[in-house]
Structures are given as structure tokens and as C-alpha cells.
Amino acid sequence: MEYSFKPEEVIVSSWSDKRSSWGLSPPTGVQVVHLKTGIVVTCNVARSQHRNRHIAFLELEWKLKSVDLLPMARSTNAGREPLFI
Questions:
Q1: φ and ψ at 12, to 5 degrees?
Q2: Domains delineated in the chain
Q3: Per-residue confidence (pLDDT) for residue 4, from 0 to 100
């Protein structure tokens, strides 16, 4: 899948917070940091690291689009009630 950010613009780290009966389970939680904006997204909802990474990337994509729209929303809303995003 294509994302609007480049792979070198993010740092992806993973962790495991569970212990199974055989010891530590493989890492499933994912944290994504966008270096240009400092936006941090974490995901630990799915059982697989691959799925959590995909969900975190989609959330980061959404947040980056929200940040891009914020200055435009502020300029079009000048002189009116505050716009809450």
C-alpha cells in the first residue's frame, strides 16, 4: 500500500507486553514516530505486528492530513466562531 510519507521519515519500534506459558511472546505492539512533525502513533489492538503496523500507518496518514488541513480551516474561519478539529 502507498502512503503519503516516505519510509525514511518515520521510525518504527515494536514491543511485547505479554508473557505466554512458553516465556515472552513475540513483539506485537507498534509505535510510529513521524520525524518531520513529531507525531507519535501507537497501536496494540491486533494480534499481529504486521496488522498493528498497518493500522498505525493509516492513523498516521489521517493525522498528517488533519495537520495539513488545519491552517486552511483557520484561514477560512477568520472572524467566525472557533473551529474545533
A1: -115, 125
A2: 7-76 (3.30.160.20)
A3: 84
